[in-house]
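User: I'm curious whether this sequence folds into something compact or stays loose and floppy. Could you predict its structure so I can see for myself?
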Amino acid sequence: MATEFNLPGSSLEEIQKILKGYSHAPEQATLDQLSKLTGLHATVISRNNKFLSDIGLIAGGMKKTATDLGKKLGRALDHKQNADAQGYWKEAVQTNEKVAGLVTTVRIKGGMTESEFSAHVLYVSGQKNNAGNKTGARCVVDVLLAANLLQEENGKLVVSSAPAKETPADLKPDTQAATQPAAGENGNGNGGGTGIPLPLPPLPAIPQTGTLTPQIAINIQLHLPETENAEVYEKLFKALREHLLSPKA
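Assistant: Here's the prediction. I'll summarize afterward.
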C-alpha cells in the first residue's frame, strides 16, 4: 500500500516538547540546536519532522523552521494556554485532508474504541505494522483529542459536539426592553405591566337627546339607451311616474 500520510515517531508528550523547541529555535535550526533546547535526542526529533511538516507546523529542507501556526502552538503549549493550543491543533489537523478525514470514519461508524481507531489510523496511513508505527498511530489519536475533534464517551471515541457560538454582545437583543411592555400598553402605564393582555375599557355610551327617527334614502341609477327616438324616453318617464313617484295603491 502506498504511503498515505506520515505517522509521528513518538508520544504526544514528546511531540509537544519538540514544538516548544521549534518555537524558541532560530530559523533553519539544526537537529543539534533543537536537541539542546528540548533535551531530546536528535533522532527522536528527526523521526517526527515528517508528520509535523504534513500538518503544517514546520517547514524546510534539512534544516526546519516552525511555521507561524507552529510558533503559535508551541508558545501556547509553553505557557499552558490549553484553549488556544486546542484551537491551533485543530487548525493544524485541518491543513491535511487525509488526517482530518479520520474524523469522518468515527462519525460514520457512530464511535470506535481506542484500539479499533488506532488500528484504523495505522492501516489507512499505509505504514508498516510495527511497534514504532503503533505508537505513532496512538499519537495521532491523541492529537485529534487535543484538537477536540474527538472526545471519549462511554468507553468509545466519538466526534465532539460543536460548541454553540455565542452571539456578540452588540448583536444581542435587549432582553429587558423586549419583554417589558411599553408605558401605557399594559399595566399601570409606567412600564411596570404584568405582561398579561388586559381587556379594553368599555366605550362610553352615546347620549340620547330625543326620539330618533330613522331615515331611509334610496338612490336609483338609470342607464338610458342611446337613441334619437323621443317615444322611447316618453315611455320610460311615464313608467317612472306610475311606479315610483305616484304608485298606485
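Summary: Confidence is low (pLDDT under 50) at residues 164-171, 177-189. DSSP finds eleven helices and four strands in the chain.
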